[in-house]
Amino acid sequence: MEYTCPICGYPNLEENPRSEADGPSYEICPCCAFEFGYDDDDQGYTYDQWREEWISAGMPWRGSKEIPQNWDPKKQLENLKKISLVS
Ligand SMILES: [Zn+2]
């Protein structure tokens, strides 16, 4: 099972960013580099703040993984419409 990043729409997170049972995943999104459970809980960023910052920085690929072929950040953001942002 793969999960969508609620910030940038990256569709291949390995863990649920924030599940009711397990809490935050501490996975770092390979696209926008948000760490669930750290950047939000410890650093106080909201998803919206991080997304706005990422978009205004030009939607860069920030992760250590290779950029997917034909990666299109704008198209990727469309994924957010498919998931519920309400936890
Ligand atoms: Zn992301």
Which range does the strand content fall in?
A: under 5%
Average pLDDT rating: 93
Q: Number of helical segments?
A: 2
Low-confidence stretches: none
User: What's the story with the biggest beta sheet?
Assistant: 2 strands, antiparallel
Number of domains: 1
Q: Label the overall shape.
A: globular
- Give the C-alpha Rg: 12 Å
Find the structural class using helix and strand composition: mainly alpha
Characterize the structure shown.
- The protein is mainly alpha-helical.
- It has one domain.
- 17% of the residues lie in helices and 5% in strands.
- The protein contains two helices and two strands.
- Strands 1-2 form a two-stranded antiparallel sheet.
- A hairpin with a 3-residue loop joins strand 1 (18-19) and strand 2 (23-24).
- The longest helix has 10 residues, at 47-56.
- The radius of gyration is 12 Å and the shape is globular.
- The protein starts with 17 loop residues before the first strand and ends in a 10-residue tail after the last helix.
- The model has no long low-confidence stretch (mean pLDDT 93).
- It binds zinc ion (ZN).
- Residues 5, 7-8, 10, 29, 31-32, 34 line the site of zinc ion (ZN).
